[in-house]
TrEMBL record:
Region (Disordered): 643-674, 692-754
Transmembrane segments: 606-626
Protein name in UniProt: Immunoglobulin superfamily DCC subclass member 3
PANTHER family associated with the record: IMMUNOGLOBULIN SUPERFAMILY DCC SUBCLASS MEMBER 3, PROTEIN SIDEKICK
Ranges of residues in domain Fibronectin type-III: 392-486, 487-583
Organism: Centropus bengalensis
Ig-like domain mapped to chain residues: 8-100, 105-192, 204-287, 295-382
GO biological process: cell-cell adhesion
Gene: Igdcc3
Lineage: Eukaryota, Metazoa, Chordata, Craniata, Vertebrata
Recorded GO CC terms: membrane
Length: 754
């Protein structure tokens, strides 16, 4: 069973009760476990001795023959009672039961007489205190009020509401309070209903709003709200935090009282009562706070455990409630005192016992308590101890390997080594408490362990235990050693080109750099082996400009952080300034003043450009129209031109060129000269591929004899405008070789002049 020790545990515990004066009282206590079990009772922490008035029954319960709130000697039977049970395994204490005497005070508030007009609202109230809470009933004219009448509402706290008053409601009212201690009657109050129902408009008004209430879960809360007005206001409820009130367990009493049954902690909050005038936004509000408490209850019980001597025992006890409960630990019924050996953590939810021995064997109890109630759970610790356990491991040594690693070595125990199943290495920072210790298991054939993931420049303590199936040896001697210091981590390096001879190295300071004293900066041309540097920079510097660089080569920049433990790993970057130089040539600095002046006239320039463009388009269209018309007229006379006596080709070509406004020879001279320049440049860039292309296309360079050029001018004409007469060419005379590219070449066909 959860929360119970099988050796000794409570089956029934005493509960809170209200006792009646001069009446007997029984407090129940039932225990199970391994006999013999001894049961005793305490009141307010003091042992109860059997007497004529109070004694223990055979089943362990406590019997009080005549309960007295106050005895003749000034003592009282009221108080907190608990039951203790003990056997040879330990001692447990029950929860505390609060015993109070049944009482009833006089009325604090009596009903008051009232005169109310017909159709209005009447309210009477009685208030009285008592244990248990008195039940209040109402009488009219010495007869019980008819609760079946929907206009009559009785609230648990002694309030009577009458709505929609009529003449027959007039009468004498009083209340009757009853509990196990007494019955009392209040003073009488007269209700007078006057006049007839008024039709005069009245703003809504809340006569009585909700009170602040503090209750316990599963109880019932009644929030009162009674309002008047003409017309009769509509009463509504809401929560101030905007959460829905819900429907389960919610009921409206009378004309606007809110009743919440079976309370839970989620019902806690501020409730707002609103009286609304029908059909308008006119409203009046009142509010009250509801606090719902929950007794302490366990979410996780402590569990009985058995552990070998020298190990650590941990008990966990988690409780909830409203308000949050306080947790207390008992050891064999006594308050547990903490020490270096016993620690409480997580708001006392976790009990840790380090290096347990026979003296720690006991029953441990967790007591959870708040203003709404208390509860307890117990668990037993058994310490396993056997003869013939190994002696402590010998010659424990620890050697530092690096900033984060230590190697621990030891030798086999001197005695009882045959049953060893392994070793456990206990590791802790020397400055930490014992509960921060952690362990690493090692096989029985291994006598050294590399402990990693340690912190640099930190002292650690180590000890070893040898384990068998029956328990652990005593711990070895403790050895303390420190890790080495750590060099800084690699910094983040960025390179920015400032100009053609300067770059800027920047880096980010980082907590991962560790303790560093500064930075070292190196740089070199990549084709050289020697670095320039180091440039020593303090730890607060994060940028450095490298100047007087050569723009034609690539540079390597290296940065590292250093401290008293040495240099860290470096970060390397490569940078070239060539692109910056090229960009400067291709994109010279702008004349910003000139650009600004040009921007001022840009709009005017755009408008003028548009006009010029439109004008050019018009002229081009007119030129094409007139040029095409003139060509058609000339084509009509082609046939006549073909039939005229032929003149020598050279003369005809020359004449045709002159008719066109210039000699073709001059034009060819200019074209060929330009073409030769272009060909020379192409030959220099692409000598192999261009030669073949020239052969394919018939292009002759200036260094070879010119081929005969066909100066025929061809004009395309519609077929229905002219006809072609084949002409036999004359024998061509051989012309002497000439280096002039402008020499006329003989024609091989007719020339058609447009």
């Amino acid at each position: 069973d959860f929360g119970r020790s099988s050796e000794l545990a409570f089956v029934v515990e005493p509960s809170d009760d209200i006792a009646v004066q001069e009446q007997p009282l029984i407090l129940y206590c039932q225990v199970e476990g391994i006999q013999p079990i001894t049961i005793t009772w305490r009141k307010n922490g003091v042992m109860i001795v059997d007497s004529e008035n109070a004694f223990m029954l055979a089943n362990g319960s406590l019997y009080v023959s005549r309960f007295q709130r106050v005895r003749g000697d000034g003592s009282s039977d009221e108080g907190e009672y608990d039951c203790m049970a003990q056997n040879h395994y330990g001692l447990v204490v029950s929860r505390k039961a609060k015993i109070q005497a049944a009482t009833m005070s006089d009325f604090h508030i009596h009903p008051q007489s009232a005169v109310v007009e017909e159709g209005g609202v009447a309210r009477f109230q009685c208030q009285i205190h008592g244990l248990p809470e008195p039940v209040i009933l109402w009488q009219k004219n010495r007869m019980p009020v008819n609760t079946d009448n929907e206009r009559y509402t009785l609230l648990p706290k002694g309030v009577l509401q009458i709505t929609g008053l009529r003449a027959e409601d007039s009468g004498i009212f009083h209340c009757v309070a009853t509990n196990i201690a007494n019955v009392k009657f209040s003073r009488e109050a007269r209700l007078t209903v006057s006049g007839s129902h008024s039709t005069v408009y009245k703003d809504p008004m809340i006569l009585v709003g909700p009170e602040n209430l503090t209750l316990t879960v599963h109880q019932t809360a009644v929030l009162e709200c009674i309002a008047t007005g003409n017309p009769r206001p509509i009463v509504s409820w809401s929560r101030l935090d905007g959460r829905p009130i819900g429907v389960e367990g919610i009921q409206v009493l009378g004309t606007g009282n809110l009743m919440i049954s079976d309370l839970t902690v989620q019902h806690s909050g501020i409730y707002v009562c609103a009286a609304n005038k029908p059909g308008t936004r006119v409203r009046r509000t009142a509010q009250g706070r509801l606090v719902v408490q929950a007794p302490a209850e366990f979410v996780q019980h402590p569990q009985s455990i058995s552990r070998p001597a020298g190990t650590t025992a941990i008990f966990t006890c988690v409780a909830q409630g409203e308000p949050p409960p306080q947790i207390t630990w008992l050891r064999n019924g006594q308050i547990l005192e903490t020490s270096d050996h016993i620690k409480l953590k997580n708001n006392n939810s976790t009990l840790s016992i380090y290096g347990i021995n026979q003296a720690d064997e006991a029953i441990y109890q967790c007591i959870a308590e708040n203003s709404a109630g208390s509860t307890q759970a117990s668990a037993r610790l058994t310490v396993l101890w056997a003869d013939g356990l190994p002696s402590p491991p010998q010659s424990v040594k620890a050697e530092t390997v690096s900033a984060t690693t230590i190697q621990v070595s030891w030798k086999e125990p001197l005695q009882n080594t045959k049953e060893i199943i392994g070793y456990v290495l206990h590791i802790r920072k020397a400055a930490d408490p014992e509960e921060m210790e952690y362990q690493e298991a090692v096989s029985k054939s291994t006598f050294q362990q590399l402990v990693t993931d340690l912190e640099p420049s930190t002292s650690y303590s180590f000890y070893i235990k040898a384990y068998t199936s029956r328990g652990a040896s005593k711990p070895s001697e403790v050895t303390v050693v420190s890790t080495l210091g750590e060099v800084p981590a690699m910094p983040s390096l960025f390179i920015k080109v400032i100009n053609s001879t300067t770059v800027q190295a920047t880096w980010e300071p980082s907590i991962k750099l560790g303790q560093h004293e500064g930075f070292k900066l190196y740089y070199r041309k990549v084709h050289l082996s020697q670095y320039t540097g180091p440039v020593l920079l303090p730890s607060n510097v994060t940028a450095y400009n490298i100047t007087h660089l050569d723009a034609s080569v690539v540079y390597e920049v290296k940065l590292l952080a250093f401290n008293q433990h040495g240099d860290g790993n470096s970060t390397v970057r490569f940078v070239s300034l060539r692109e910056t130089v090229e960009r400067t040539v291709l994109n010279p600095p702008c004349d910003c003043g000139k650009d600004e002046q040009n921007n001022k006239t840009s709009t005017t320039g755009i408008i003028i450009g548009i006009h010029i463009g439109v004008t050019c388009i018009i002229f081009c269209v007119l030129f094409l129209m007139f040029g095409y018309r003139g060509r058609l007229l000339m084509c009509k006379n082609v046939q006549e031109q073909l039939s005229t006596p032929q003149i020598p080709r050279s003369q005809r070509s020359a004449t045709g060129l002159v008719l066109n406004g210039a000699t073709r020879r001059d034009k060819d001279d200019r074209d060929m000269n330009g073409k030769q320049l272009d060909m020379n440049e192409l030959e220099r860039l692409f000598p192999a591929s261009l030669a073949q292309e020239q052969q394919d296309k018939g292009i002759t360079s200036a260094h070879s004899p010119p081929a005969a050029h066909d100066d025929t001018q061809i004009t395309t004409l519609p077929l229905d405008e002219f006809s072609i007469i084949e002409e036999q060419p004359d024998p061509l005379p051989k012309s002497p070789r000439s280096s002039s590219p402008a020499a006329p070449a003989p024609d091989h066909g007719p020339t058609y002049e447009g």
